[in-house]
Amino acid sequence: MSAAAATEAAPVAPKKKGGAMKMVLAILVTAAVAGGGAFYAAQHLLPPPAAPVAGEAAEEAPAASGGHDEHGGGAPVTGGDYFSLAPSFVVNLNDEDVSRFLQIEVEVMAVKPAALDAVRANLPVIRNRLVLLFSSQKFRDLLPREGKEKLQQQSLEEINKLLEERKKPRIDGVMFTSFVMQ
After folding, report:
1. What is the mean pLDDT of the chain?
2. Separation of alpha carbons 122 and 169, rounded Å
């Protein structure tokens, strides 16, 4: 068989089209996944930014405490430091007809750093009191916004009651950063 005949007998594979397009698509998908991973890491895995310098916190403190009376009412306090009462609280709600659950993440805020130190030192007792408070709630009472705000105020009062018993500075706010009922 001659070389010409062998060339004719062997099937010629057609050149693949779109190879460059597949390569560009693969690069774009890889970049998107890497960007998403970097964004997630920045939001969830990196430590929070450093607290303000002592002089900056002292400048903000008088303005922040002006609208907040001693009983927790008035305008919300801003400009303090935050502390998470992690892990999440998970409790059964006080309903007789069906099993209901509440999962709630709580952070406390204080203008005075000593108040957050007191929270850290008394964390087991604070968590215990909040578990008792949260588990005594009724599902229907927590459905409207007013019910959640009332529970938020009760949580603030419960924590401050403990801190006052121990002659420690009060916290200025309680925030629910996650609130799930089922």
Report:
1. 77
2. 12
Give the containing element (helix H, strand E) for 136: none
| Residues forming a β-bridge with 92 | 101
Distance, in Å, from the CA atom of 154 to the CA atom of 69, rounded to the nearest integer, reads 15
Nearest to 60 by CA among 46, 75, 42, 78: 78
Query: Computed from CA positions of residues 50, 54, 55, 61, in that sequence, does the dihedral angle turn out positive or negative?
Result: positive
Rg (CA), the chain: 29
**Mean pLDDT, residues 149-158:** 96
Alpha-carbon distance of 121 to 115, in angstroms, equals 10
Question: Which tokens belong to 87?
Answer: 């892990």
The predicted model scores a pTM of 0.57
Give the type of residue at 161.
K
For residue 36, which phi and psi values (nearest 5 degrees)?
Answer: -65, -40
Cα–Cα distance, 167 to 161 (Å, whole number): 10
Q: What is the rounded distance in angstroms from the CA atom of residue 18 to the CA atom of residue 101?
A: 54
* Amino acid (1-letter code) at residue 10: A
